Amino acid sequence: MSSADRLLYGRWVRVEEHWWNGDTSRRGRRDVYIRTDGQRWDVQVRIGGESGRTRVQECPGRTSAVILAGAWRGNHPAWREVSG
Q: Most C-beta atoms within 10 A of its C-beta, which of 12, 38, 48, 67?
């Protein structure tokens, strides 16, 4: 994740959790991140690796961020947590 992606609401954020779908191709790679600045939470999905498209959904708290991240990952067994 680039330093520009670590900004949220004009403040630095911490990536709490990160999952990757295991696909190394540029078109197939998917990443899901749970991020926080200590007060606000969001889930970011990235399609296509570092230079790919992103979508960010704000969440009211950690619990809803975990639920949303799970929904975006689906139940495909290839997803794995990335340690940071």
A: 48
Q: What residue type is 51 in one-letter code?
A: S
Token output for 40: 């606000």
Lookup: tokens for 67: 């639920």
Give the tens place of pLDDT for each residue, 50-82: 889 999 999 999 999 999 999 999 988 899 999
Q: DSSP of 33-75, one letter per residue?
A: EEEESSS-EEEEEEESSTTSEEEEEEESSHHHHHHHHHHHHTT
Per-domain boundaries in the chain: 3-74
Please tell me the distance from the alpha carbon of residue 69 to that of residue 67, in angstroms, as a whole number.
Answer: 6
pLDDT at residue 3 is higher than 50: no
Q: What tokens were used for 21?
A: 């779908």
